[in-house]
Amino acid sequence: MPPTDTVNATQTSGLLEQLEAIRRRTEALLARVPDDGAFNRQPDGGGWSVGQCLDHLNQMNRLYFGAIRGALSRAERSRAPVTAPLSSSWFGNWFVASMEPGTRKFRAPRKAVPRSSAARAEVTAEFLRGLDEIEAALKDAAAIDLNRPTFASPFFRLSRVRAGTGFRVLLAHMRRHLQQAEHVVNRRQVPGRPTAEAQRPHRLLALLSARR
User: Fold this and answer.
1) Could you report how far apart the first and last alpha carbons of the chain are, in Å?
2) How far apart are CA 179 and CA 30, in angstroms?
3) CB-CB contact of 50 with 35 (8 Å)
4) Phi/psi class of residue 188: alpha, beta or left (left: φ > 0; alpha: ψ in -120 to 50)?
5) Exposed (0-12), middle (13-18) or buried (19+): which is 178, by Cβ within 10 Å?
6) 8's torsion region: left (phi>0), alpha (psi -120 to 50) or beta?
7) Which residues, 6+ apart, have CB-to-CB distance to 190 below 8 Å?
8) pLDDT per residue over 39-85, tens digit each?
9) How far apart are CA 56 and CA 14, in angstroms?
């Protein structure tokens, strides 16, 4: 579960804590898949490899974070860091929750279907660079009320998504597929454990409610 914000925390501090936890989790995962063979090996019963999970995240982060960054570039800034809590519509909250690990499965949007294989160094470098860019954007946005700027979903142009909701979706989605990748490695390394991967690709962010 995401960490609880502390008293007097800025609006972005809780998001930065979640991002740092994702970074540590990624580093631990990568230490367990040291070469291209392990990185690209799919489960025996079907499903994505560790590399495909991260390649999918790269594509989604590139598209979705790019839209968030555009909204932030046009946003008004306060004189001091914003401390108001993040707010999402009912549907926005539901959608964020649906991206967390262990929830219903979706099919990946056509724009974000991962490659069948890719070099570990290439995929991991892009993913870690993306985390750096998201961190820098959150720190730069400390004086922006993330409840106010909105952007059009890259997958459903008629919807408007609040910047804060967008960041929450990104983080939940990363946790979802990091857990999927961890399961792939765990099932491979535990003797006698089934190797079938139950998770399937999903249609992420195709429907997100208009701002309410």
Assistant:
1) 25
2) 13
3) no
4) alpha
5) buried
6) left
7) none
8) 999 998 889 999 999 999 999 999 999 999 999 999 999 999 999 99
9) 25
In one-letter notation, the amino acid at residue 196 is A
pLDDT of residue 183: 95
Which positions ≥6 away from 163 have C-beta within 8 Å? 68, 71, 72, 75, 141, 144, 146, 147, 148, 149, 150, 151
Residue with tokens 């535990």: 190
Average pLDDT over residues 1-6: 45
6 pLDDT tier (thresholds 50, 70, 90): very low
Q: How far apart, in whole angstroms, are the C-alpha atoms of residue 114 and residue 120? A: 13
Q: What is the pTM of this model?
A: 0.83
- Strands 150-152, 160-162: pairing kind: antiparallel
Q: Which amino acid is at 152?
A: A
DSSP notation for the chain: -PPPPPTT--TTHHHHHHHHHHHHHHHHHHTT--SHHHHHPPPTTS---HHHHHHHHHHHHHHHHHHHHHHHHT----SS---SPP---HHHHHHHHHHSTTS---BPPGGGPPPS---HHHHHHHHHHHHHHHHHHHHHTTTS-TTS-EEE-SS-TT-EEEHHHHHHHHHHHHHHHHHHHHHHHHHHHSTT---------B-TTS--PPP-
